[in-house]
Specification:
The chain is an alpha+beta fold. 33% of the residues lie in helices and 30% in strands. The chain has a 6-stranded mixed sheet with strand order 2-1-6-5-4-3, with helices on both faces.
Length: 194
């Protein structure tokens, strides 16, 4: 009796243990070739790329050093975001302004920011990545004592607006003294492709 049962069950068992076949694939229509982007706008030449990036870094330093957070905020797009050296992430021009007003009334009220090295690379005719090394002096602790000088690297993604760049996003990184010495001693960057 067991034998006939096994004989009948064996094909079902084999079927249950067999790997499942993939579901049938419906035929697809041929994919049309995606047209190449129009070559209506070219990247700025190397000299213009460098000038726009240096202009942005200079404006950032100027507004910081004048402690004019309205002008500082105006460097940013309305929907910009900003990550500072501590990982605090601010969204929107208004929030970026508000977060900097308080520190410029306290610990950075006498600070001085300078750019040391600026590199700019356009990734589209109207979008640039601006990376620049900075030094900050004159900061104080919350209790008013002199704070050690700081250095770091800012990275902006910026959109070209006429003859200037407007910041869309910023990432700020504080650098160790050894890392910063290495950045300062780097050879000048290769010019971007024309």
């Amino acid at each position: 009796m067991v034998r006939p049962f096994l004989a009948a069950a064996l094909p079902l068992l084999a079927l249950a243990c067999a790997p499942a076949s993939p579901p049938p694939v419906a035929p697809t229509a041929p994919v049309a070739a995606t047209p190449a982007p129009a070559a209506s706008a070219a990247l700025p030449d190397a000299r213009e790329q460098r000038a726009l990036g240096e202009q942005l870094a200079a404006a950032f330093c100027d507004t910081w050093n004048r402690h004019d957070m309205d002008a500082f905020a105006a460097l940013h797009a309305e929907d910009a975001d900003f990550v500072n050296i501590f990982g605090m992430w601010w969204h929107g021009r208004s929030d970026i302004r508000k977060s900097h007003v308080g520190i410029h009334e306290t610990v950075f009220r006498q600070s001085r920011l300078t750019s040391v090295r600026v590199e700019t690379r356009f990734v589209a005719p109207d979008v640039a990545v601006v990376r620049w090394a900075w030094e900050l002096t004159g900061a104080v602790t919350p209790d008013g004592k002199p704070a050690p000088d700081m250095q770091g690297i800012l990275v902006h993604v910026a959109r070209r607006e006429g003859d200037r760049l407007q910041i869309v996003t910023t990432q700020n990184t504080q650098a160790t003294a050894d890392a910063f010495r290495a950045v300062r001693s780097m050879d000048a960057p290769a010019s971007p492709a024309p």
